[in-house]
Prior knowledge:
Layout: H1 7-23, E1 32-38, E2 43-51, E3 54-63, E4 69-74, E5 78-80, E6 83-92, E7 100-112, E8 117-132, E9 139-143, E10 147-152, E11 157-162, E12 168-172, E13 179-182, E14 188-191, E15 195-199, E16 205-210
Antiparallel strand pairs: 1-2, 2-3, 4-6, 5-6, 6-7, 7-8, 9-10, 10-11, 11-12, 13-14, 14-15, 15-16
Amino acid sequence: xxxxxxxxxxxxxCCAWSGVAEAKKVMLDAGLYTEYSNNGTxxxxxxxxxxxxxxGCYGGGGLGPLEQACAVLEGKPKQKDNVxxxxxxxxxxxxxxxxxxxxxxFTRTDTFSSDYVSTQVQQTKQVPxxxxxxxxxxxxxxANDAFIYAGTDAHNRVVAIDKKxxxxxxxxxxxxVQSITADDRGYVALDFGGxxxxxxxxxxxxxxxxxxxxxxxxxxxxxx
Length: 224
């Protein structure tokens, strides 16, 4: 039995297979990992793993200056030719509860050769968030592809930061912020202790309820 395939169908199949192959493309940093540590007025990081036929630690950098860093998030990596860039977001709760906490945005650039990677980092934004923190405050921060949500338990307001425009919007609870968590699909829960509010990946408020509620992901455990 012979199966005849038209040119149009063949083209569709070709494009479909091409899309699958492209989706499975391995990133240049697939063999690398990054370790972070707090160094007082900065966050230090070091890049280790393997590139090509080499392995070890290839370098790193510092994210600062800061007063009191309290939360760190990485953005999604973007690869073009032999270069990968990603944003790193650092929340600074400040050393005084009389000044607003800030979101510090850094751009990390990794340039790959056959057996080596060089890393550079520079600060690109510093965004005052208009809510208070201070040395005794507990910070919360989570993100999806579109927004970063940040706050502290010294305030009842969570700030949503648009990742592209860096515009701010706020959500207030009846009590101070207890936690901000996200799941793998980008749903975000704001926990105010006495109540919670859930947002979808596009930043739309979905629901509010009484009592605490948090999201759970597949990497880091939720601690009840």
